[in-house]
Amino acid sequence: MLELDTITAGYDRLRPVVREVSLTLAPGEAVGLLGPSGCGKSTLAKVAALLHRPYAGRVVIDGEPARGWRHTAPRAQRTAIGVVFQQPRMSADPRLPLRDLIAEPLRATGRRDEVPARVGELADTVGLTGELLGRRPHEVSDGQLQRACLARALVLRPRWLICDEMTAMLDASTTAALVAVVEEYRATEGAGLLAVGHDRILLERWCDRTVHWQTPPTAA
């Protein structure tokens, strides 16, 4: 279970954008978090991914409370969660070819021997050719770069996947392809999914249930 318990968070302690929000996600479950831009749903997603420390509340991962944030989080908790952001160019090192971008988490966790096989496997899964793997972010389209970012999020086989507006900048065919990759991964690995967005139709078709952002969010 991934649990967010009465989370208050933001970037100004006097004006938090998230106030006492609770949300739970079961293994294998897909939950959509629906709301307009600026409502705080992306901040909540970052808290869930251990990328943003809340002012109050707690995150519980598989029964264990989070014991740190970003690089101070224990490796076992940090690697249990894969994240895909809305803007791939903001989350990709422009110096790295896509092959190395995907491999980053493996190298960071001392699993270099897995790089060739795992990167090749995921490149096929997300639809990247060998020629594209040798290109840097500025040499590929947004859709191709987002495919690489999704592969990077999956490379350590996380138990929880957070997609924060993953398809907002993509065309319909690329959106369908990446959603299909996520669904195949969930079916194979039994991973839970938190999909954040403002496209009601997409989230309600994709997810088992949708949470509508209010104060606090209410389940649909």
The major pleated sheet works out as: 6 strands, mixed
Q: Kindly state the mean pLDDT as a whole number? A: 93
The H-and-E topology, N to C, reads as: EEEHEEHEHHHHHEHEHEE
Please compute the radius of gyration using only Cα atoms.
17 Å
The percentage of residues in β strands lies in 15-25%
How many DSSP helices? Answer: 9
Q: What's the β-strand tally?
A: 10
Low-confidence stretches: none
Pfam families: ABC_tran (PF00005)
Protein name: ABC transporter ATP-binding protein
GO molecular function: ATP binding
Family: Belongs to the ABC transporter superfamily.
Your description of this structure?
- Belongs to the ABC transporter superfamily.
- Keywords: ATP-binding, Nucleotide-binding, Transport.
- The chain is α/β, with parallel strands linked by helices and 220 residues long.
- Helix content is 37%, strand content 23%.
- It contains 9 helices and 10 strands.
- A 6-stranded mixed beta sheet has the order 6-7-8-3-9-10, sandwiched between helices.
- A hairpin with an 8-residue loop joins strand 1 and strand 2 (18-25).
- Helix 4 (98-108) crosses helix 5, helix 4 packs parallel to helix 7 (142-154) and helix 5 crosses helix 7 (142-154).
- The radius of gyration is 17 Å and the shape is globular.
- The model has no long low-confidence stretch (mean pLDDT 93).
